Amino acid sequence: MPRIAPRGLRAGASIAVVACSTNRAHQHPDRLANACTHLAEMGFEVVLGDSVRRRDVPGAAELAAELEGFAADPSIGAVVSLIGGWGCNRLLPHIDFAAIARSRPTLIGYSDFTALLVAVSAATGLGTIYGPALLPQFGDEAPPDDYTRETLLRACELGDGVLCEFPSYQLEAVPWGPGAPTRRREPAAAPSTLREGTASGPLLGGNIASLLTLAGTPYWPDLAGAVLLLEASSGTSAALLRAQLAQLAQLGCFAQAAAVLIGRFARSELADPSLAESVLREVRWSQPVAWNLPFGHTDPVLSLPLLATASVELAGTVRLRLTEPMSQTRPPSGSPTAPLPMATTRGGGPMNNNN
Q1: Which residues contact 337 (CB under 8 A, 6 or more apart)?
Q2: Which of 59, 178, 206, 341 is most deeply packed, by most CB within 10 A?
Q3: What is the pLDDT of residue 156?
Q4: Residues 216, 222, 225, 231, CA torsion sign
Q5: CA of residue 156 relative to chain centroid, distance
Q6: d(CA 262, CA 191)
Q7: Distance between CA atoms of 308 and 226, rounded to whole angstroms?
Q8: Is 337 within the bounds of a domain?
Q9: CATH code of the domain containing 129
Q10: Residue 331: per-residue pLDDT
Q11: DSSP letter for each residue of 243-254
């Protein structure tokens, strides 16, 4: 299937926010306001979907219609997930994938948004971005971490292939709420190799639990030759991870993937590196494998463009390079050309939050 580049982000474009899994905006209005302010300071206007402003959970068809409406709107530079949760997979039967392919939206998120990102990429060839969500990464009173912000913009710029750098720190976890302290940077271990080797292939995957909701459905992706991304939700136990990895192995994922990259474990017993590594080593890997990479349920977050071709070199160190960025994919015939990369930002102007 030919790959399709998303529209990308223009300076001054609007960013639409959707709650396809769980809506916690009404529980954390301070984080929603902070996130809108921070995105405005980065030069983007924010459009909140009706799913964000409601207290109930909309039906799947209604959520899919909202998503498709934002995707088709040329003034929307990107559609970002509010937060994770459960249930994003229920939208899939209601989505017009052909319309999504024609409009080429830039879809961004992680956690349960994996089901949507992977299904869209698998069904249409459209590149999506496994990156931050609104409330977790942009909701602090302090601006988003430089690493999160810069790798997100780089992933959206449709620019040249780059060598991914990994931060030597992570942000401490603090309870959400008004007056929450500024999160400090804590030392973080570097990504580590489980099985050495080199490989190249399209990036694909995301959150393990959400990815497995696609198993046995028409939305399951072809992982042959892929650089498979896997990360676990906060609170995942060692027992649950063992079961999830066993299911992935039984589905043939590890027999098909060219390489496997595993995200950092956070806020669970798997944050103990000796326990996490022991669980991961129970798998009979046959390809290069690295773990403790800064994507998924961690902070700061490395944004990764799904379907972009990446090369992996795993030896004493972990090297991940995007060798064929999304700018080298081709939009469908008759689609507008991709916009110029975002070069400047606009100071915090008024936002459109549909009030």
Answers
A1: 331
A2: 206
A3: 86
A4: negative
A5: 12
A6: 9
A7: 10
A8: no
A9: 3.40.50.10740
A10: 41
A11: HHHHHHHHTTHH
State the residue for tokens 């990895």: 245
Distance CA 302, CA 203 (A): 13
CA nearest neighbour of 264 among 312, 301, 228, 223: 301
Give residue 36's region: left, alpha or beta (phi > 0; psi -120 to 50).
alpha
Q: Is 72 helix (H, G, I), strand (E, B) or coil?
A: helix
Cα angle: 77, vertex 82, 86; to 5 degrees: 125
Helices (H) and strands (E) in the chain, counts: 11, 15
What tokens were used for 129?
């971005």
Cα atoms in the Cβ-side hemisphere of radius 13 Å centred on 80: 30
In a domain, 355, yes or no: no
| Structure-block tokens of residue 28 | 């954390």
- pTM higher than 0.85 for the full model? yes
The verdict on residue 1 lying in a domain is: no
Residue 216 Rama label (left phi>0; alpha psi -120 to 50; beta): left
Distance, in Å, from the CA atom of 9 to the CA atom of 239, rounded to the nearest integer, reads 41
* Position 252 in a domain: yes
Q: Which domain holds residue 247?
A: 14-172+185-328
**Residue-level pLDDT, tens digit, the chain, 355 residues:** 788 999 888 778 999 999 999 888 889 999 999 999 999 999 999 999 999 999 888 999 999 999 999 999 999 999 999 999 999 999 999 999 999 999 999 999 999 999 999 999 999 999 999 999 999 999 999 999 999 999 999 998 755 567 899 999 999 989 898 888 889 999 999 999 999 999 999 999 999 999 999 999 999 999 999 999 999 999 999 999 999 999 999 999 999 999 999 999 988 999 999 999 999 999 999 999 999 999 999 999 999 999 999 999 999 899 999 887 665 444 444 333 332 222 222 233 333 333 3
List helix spans (H) across the chain.
Answer: 29-41, 50-53, 60-72, 97-103, 114-124, 134-138, 146-156, 208-212, 238-250, 253-256, 273-280
How many independent structural domains does the chain possess? 1
Structure tokens at 237: 């136990």
